Amino acid sequence: MLTNERRQVGRAMPRIDAPLKVTGRAAYAAEHSEPDMLHGAAVSATIARGRILEIDSRAAKAAFPGIAAIYTHENRPNAAWLDRSWQDETAPPGHTYRPLQNDRVLFDGQPVAFVVADSFENARDAAAMITVRYEVETPETDLTTKLAERYVPPKKRSGISPPPDPRGQPEEAFKEAHFRISGDYLIENEHHNPMELFATTVLYGADGVLAIHDKTQGSQNVQKFVCNVFSLSQDKVNVINAYVGGAFGSGLRPRHQLFFAVMASLDLKRSVKFEIARSDMFYLSYRPAMYQTVSLGADAQGRLTAVLHDTVQVTSRYEDYQEVVVNWSGLAYRCDNVALTYALTKLDAATPGDMRAPGAASGLFALESAMDELSYEVGIDPLELRRRNFVHFDQNENKQLTSKALRACYREGAARFGWERRQAKPRSMHEGHELIGWGMATGIWEAQLQSAKARVRMSANGQVIVQAAASDIGTGTYTILAQIAAEALDVPAEDVSVQIGQSDLPETSVEGGSWTAASSGSAVDAACLAIRQRLLDMAQKDDASPLKDATVEEVVIRDGHLRLDTDPRAGVAISELMARAGETAIEEEGKAGPDAKQMKSFASYTHSAVFVEVRVDEELGLARVTRVVSAVAAGRILNPKTARSQILGGVVMGLGMALHEESMIDHRSGRIMNHNLAEYHVPAHADIQDIDVHFVQEFDDKASPIGVKGLGEIGVCGVAAAVANAIFHATGKRIRHLPITIDKILGETVGKAA
Amino acid sequence: MPSAPPSLRTIPITLTINGRRHDLDVAPWTSLLDLLREDLKLCGTKKGCDHGQCGACTVLVDGVRINSCLSLAVMRDGAEITTIEGLGTPERLHPMQRAFMEHDALQCGYCTPGQICSAVGLVSEGHAHSRAEIRELMSGNLCRCGAYTNIADAVEDILEQQQKAAAE
Ligand code: FES
Ligand code: FES
């Protein structure tokens, strides 16, 4: 039997890519080069809506003899014409933005010219000398003035469920409810701001083959995009994203730096690198601003009798970006009268994009704030209210759940936090000049499985190589894939070589939605099973083999032998099997994907309970989060170390959402004013104190073949609400407008969104 | 060599980088960060903002941590520079690098070299005595992956080891 010390899966091993990363040896997209390569720089529009009248680059050309090309809408090389050629696998419906397509300016910061020169500085400085004349039109960028122009997106975005039809009699039930609360919630645009700048390095091969190092969450998604847009065959385009310096969703769609670098490289037949500036990162993608209304009705015991959740969310003029915002309100708690509506409104802005727990992070802020408010109305503990409304199935789709250990999250999270010591009344806990507040919220995210393939190669000498076109954007993919193969083939995980982040490896969808561990992990597991089957076939060629009558389920790989699980003494050395078959290694592919039949009757979610302590300085209005407990139910945990980090990261982003993050737009010009890291505040060391991550036991044999549900998003879900609820408990002020900054804490905001 | 506007010439400087002497001709506007990354291919030092707002580009200049994006290379003529590559190698990690690995004080790894150089600088400054001080004095290094608590653990670990060693 396998002893615990030998288990590879479930072991808190350090990341296998850590030695390269802590020594600066891991090379990111902009860190590949070639002698005499060219560098790009973009000129960004300084208006949010209008037309380009003239672009004058004479001064730049005169000053910089090293300029290789300046591209504008007037001279750019041809690219694909059809919309569908520009639509990557994650694109929303609409007309995908095409850089330099024509003279129209659709959003602030849109690149209007691209300079290629012999050094980074020359390209940057030449770009700064290019002047652009515009015909300016009045932009509309304020969501709150565009609520009336809401519309239901005519075409649904693939992979996104629209709200379910209403059930029961929501309006009537709300009117007749014993307890009723209703509130409007406003969230501002937030930007992903991964630490690595978006960059693409195109190495132009002698044979015309492009090696493209791109900052992306999917090398094959980028490969297909480049092939479609530039009419290239796949064998001419190799995309590499071996190391990705964070993305959080911003790297799902191919970004314009890719287009520019490839365009220039093909045109000039040279290698080109283009790394965008931090300020330009604010023009790529963002978590969209939205206006939400949640109304809850409950009976005398606090059981929900009506849930109404309505959202109007920002999108661009040219695409209908959609996320799942309101559906969570129909499945988080038991309720028979539910109305959920979701609409978009168009602004003069770039298309928003998926950002860590897209939709859920925003929707749960409103729902979980409302649940907190209801608990005070009913007069029971907020945690008790949630327990009373527990639901064990997906009421939106009327499906069973593959597992839901949320009660354990409530119980164990509350115990770790010390929730029972909470004094119910707002403003009842303080220390010195600080008010103390304790708040909590539930988190939910969908546990999904996507199609994924993987190849595993095992050599006679025990070397193991895992290959897949998966990505590791800081998530720990390298490490967990090594652990899965190591456990199946019984070698130390440290000895497994994992090759991912390359488009010519086995097919994998983009890294997103928390599905990589479950999907690619299951594919690796399947490949290892196929290896075991091959070995067994080899063994059974020998009539005297002790494994003669065994099935693949009855054999295991141990110590370089194929053995009977029930009788480990009966076995045969793998090296011997391979030698007999004349092989030095065996290689198998495995695949995983959603099980359509099971999905008809089962839905799968990860859950969490988040508990937060805030301390609010009453005079200064300063709120600090001093303690967080995040108790998570996410099926099997492959590596407690990297899993914990995933939750830590989600919690920190949630704290940023709650207290700091907001892209400020000057609505007169339609321009983002704080497009830098000094004025757009992401949490810093000093903001982050104690975060306790706890995984509850949850067994799930349906969410994925390996029992994993995924962790990338669940950490952020519910955090903003838990903070807002803690601030209410501390101060008695219900703030429904994120981020909760000092002015809102000091100001008169009770009962109003804005 | 990349072309420059004809009226401007490069300036000769000498830098000792990770123990190796470099005689260089640099353009007056080249930042220390771009010199390291683009000209010397020492890409362990990262660019996260180019404006002194994120700390990804932190290196040690004569033992002191600085944002290399805020320094022109020509300003550092004669200096000793240590980058992440000079602290340790994958086979022989610096204790701070090892502590980062063990505490999982990194996720995507992009802020990591800057965090480590900053932490090494912090320890030698000798101002940090508590976790609160570590947090405060490391606040120039942003980590969007949110590895902060683990980074603080790693730095605290090294500080304690040092204090213990000093006490013995
Ligand atoms: S790159 Fe120097 S501080 Fe950000
Ligand atoms: S580890 Fe990704 S930014 Fe710090």
TrEMBL record, chain A:
It comes from Xaviernesmea oryzae. It holds the Pfam family MoCoBD_1. GO terms for molecular function: iron ion binding; oxidoreductase activity. Residues 23-138 form the Aldehyde oxidase/xanthine dehydrogenase a/b hammerhead domain. This is Aldehyde oxidase. InterPro entries: Ald_Oxase/Xan_DH_a/b (IPR000674), Ald_Oxase/Xan_DH_a/b_sf (IPR036856), Ald_Oxase/xanthine_DH-like (IPR016208), AldOxase/xan_DH_MoCoBD1 (IPR008274), AldOxase/xan_DH_MoCoBD2 (IPR046867), AldOxase/xan_DH_Mopterin-bd_sf (IPR037165).
Automatic annotation (TrEMBL), chain B:
The keyword Isomerase does not apply. CDD domains: fer2 (cd00207). It comes from the Bacteria. Keywords: 2Fe-2S, Iron, Iron-sulfur, Metal-binding, Oxidoreductase. Residues 11-87 form the 2Fe-2S ferredoxin-type domain. This is (2Fe-2S)-binding protein. Pfam families: Fer2, Fer2_2. GO terms for molecular function: 2 iron, 2 sulfur cluster binding; metal ion binding; oxidoreductase activity, acting on the aldehyde or oxo group of donors.
